[in-house]
Amino acid sequence: MTSEQLYCFAMFQVLLVFLLASFRLRATDQSSRALPLLQGAICAELFSWLFYFWPAVGLSLVLSLSLSALSMSLLTAFCFKRAGRAVPWWWIIPVGLALGVSYSYFSYHRQQEISLHLMTLFAFLLIGPCFWCFRYLKPNPTLSDFMMAAVFAAWLLICLLRSLMLLIAPDWLLSGLLISQSFWPAVSAGYCIFALTGYMEETQQKFKDEALHDPLTGLLNRRGLANAIQGCLAYLQRQRHSAALFMIDLDHFKQINDKIGHDGGDEVLIAVAEALQKELRQSDVLARYGGEEFIVFLPQTDKDSAQLAAERLLLAVRNMHLPQSTQTQNLTISLGIAVFDADFDFDCQLRRADHALYQAKARGRDRIEFATDTL
What we know:
Elements: H1 3-22, H2 35-51, H3 58-82, H4 89-108, H5 112-137, H6 143-168, H7 173-212, H8 222-239, E1 243-250, H9 253-278, E2 285-290, E3 293-299, H10 303-318, E4 333-340, H11 346-362, E5 368-370
Parallel strand pairs: 4-5
Antiparallel strand pairs: 1-3, 1-4, 2-3
Helix pairs in contact: 1-2, 1-7, 2-3, 3-4, 3-5, 4-5, 5-6, 6-7
C-alpha cells in the first residue's frame, strides 16, 4: 500500500466516524431537515476518498472527483438549510454538475494545473455561500457556527493560495498538491466537527430556555425572572434607585376554567400575557409565576410611576378582546405592589408583593394594593 493510499484510507476512516456520529443526533426542530444533507455530503466525500484509492484507474478517478463535487453541492445546500433559507437548487445543481464534469475531464487528461484552478473557482461559487450563511445569515448563531464560518474561510484561502502559487511559479505544481494534502484533513474534520457540535449547542440552549421559560405563554418563569433581573438589582442597589415588583392574579380564574374548560383557560392566559406585555416598557420584565399569577419587575420605578403602570395593566385586561372560543365574563386582575429602594432581597420583596396581592383580593379584587409592611 502506497503512502497516498494510506492517506486516502485514513480520510475514509475519519469521515466514517463523523458519518456514524451524525446519526446519534436527534434534531427535532426546523434544523433537522438540514441533517440529511450533511450526512449526504459526508457520505459522498467518504466514497470519494474510497475511489481515489486507485487514481490510475480512469473510472475510479472520475467517480472520485464526481462524488467530491456532489459532496460540495450537498454541503452548500446544508448551509442554506441551516441558515433557515430556501436551498437554491436551480443554482447549486448546474454549478455542481459543471464542477464534476470539468474537474473530472481535466484530471483524467492529467491537466492538473487547470483542474486546481477550476477547483478554486468552484470553491468560491459553492463554499463562499457556505461561509456567508454561517457568518451572516444563520439566526441565533452559536460558537460552533462561527467556527464553521472560519473553516470555510480557511478552505477558500487554501484554494486561493494554491492557485496563486501555481500562477506565480507553475513548476510548483507538486507544492500545490502538498498544500491540499496537508490542510484538507483539518478542513474536512473541521466542518464535520463544528456542524455536529452546532446541533449539540442548540440542543443545550433549547433545554436551558425550557428551564427558564413557561411553556404555555413563552414568558420567563420564576427562575428565569430571578436570573434575568439579578444584574439589574445589583446595579439599582449600587445607584440607589428604586424599583417595583408586581404580583398579578387573574380574578375568578377557576370559574373561567369550569365554564370553558382548561384549553379555553390556557387561551385566556396566553391572551392576558400578551395584553400585559404590550403595556410594559422595554426595560420591564414580565414572568408567569404559576397558574393564573404573573410577576412584573419594573426597574427605576417609584410609587407614583408604579401606580400609573398598574392602572394601565388593569385597564388593558378589562378591555381585552378574547378569541370567540373563549368568550366569558369580563376579565379583571388584582395587583399587589412592592416598591423598594433599600432592601433589594428579591425573595423578601416577592413576599411583600404577594401579601399586598392577598389584600387586594380580600378587598374586592380588580384593584391595586401597595405593600406597607416589611415582613
